[in-house]
Amino acid sequence: MRLFIAVNFSRETKNRLLALRDELRARSERGRFSLPENLHLTLGFLGECDPTQTAGIKTAMDAAPFAAFDLTVDRVGRFRRDGGDIWWAGVKGSKPLLDLQRELTNTLIAAGFGLEKRHYDPHVTLGREVVTDTAPWPTEPFGETVSRIDLMKSERINGKLTYTAVYTKKAELS
């Protein structure tokens, strides 16, 4: 299974992200734009994993303590690429979010997973291979309280990229 750990969003936050995606689409000549059900914030990408590795990921998730925290989307930006850019909604790097991501990464690396230990730049992908002459634009900050993280399976079903939660860790009560 191809796996990653993510924050999935409430309907209200997804609707705000979709409005940004749709604004990007309207400003673009072309691109591949994220499906509504696939909007998420990746905490760690694990790639292809077998059942034993999947059990280890669940153990690592359970070992990562976190209390519910606020997440804020506060900007639109892009990563420049030949053939079209990756456009994203930027997530403010709050201490609880960064601590959780770092804890998950360190625990998974210690368990033998080959995660990159690079700078984490929290963002939600709005589109790939986007061609536009527009510049990133300001957005009114919005967000939600994160009270769970999910282990997600990524697969193609009838040619459509589909993400499915296979395990959930809930925030600890304070």
- CATH-assigned fold name of the domain at 2-70 and 95-118 and 146-170: Cyclic Phosphodiesterase, Chain: A
Q: For the terminal residues, how far apart are their CA atoms? A: 34 Å
Q: Helix content range of the residues, please?
A: 25-40%
If you compute it from the alpha carbons, what radius of gyration comes out, rounded to the nearest whole angstrom? 16 Å
**Uncertain stretches:** none
**What's the architecture of the domain at 2-70 and 95-118 and 146-170, going by CATH?**
Alpha-Beta Complex
Which CATH first-tier class of the domain at 2-70 and 95-118 and 146-170 would you pick? Alpha Beta
What percentage of amino acids are in beta strands? 35-45%
DSSP, total strands: 9
Corresponding CATH superfamily of the domain at 2-70 and 95-118 and 146-170: Cyclic phosphodiesterase
Arithmetic mean of pLDDT: 93
Q: What strand line-up does the widest sheet have? A: 2-6-5-4-7
**Class inferred from helices and paired strands:** alpha+beta
Q: Characterize the overall form.
A: globular
Largest sheet: 5 strands, antiparallel
Number of helices: 3
What string, H for helix and E for strand, traces the elements in order? EHEEHEEHEEEE
Give a topology summary.
Blueprint: E1 2-8, H1 11-26, E2 30-33, E3 40-48, H2 51-63, E4 69-79, E5 85-91, H3 95-110, E6 123-131, E7 142-146, E8 148-157, E9 160-170
Antiparallel strand pairs: 1-3, 1-8, 2-6, 4-5, 4-7, 5-6, 8-9
Give a nutshell description of this structure.
The chain is an alpha+beta fold and 174 residues long. The chain is built from three helices and nine strands; from the N terminus they run E-H-E-E-H-E-E-H-E-E-E-E. The radius of gyration is 16 Å and the shape is globular.
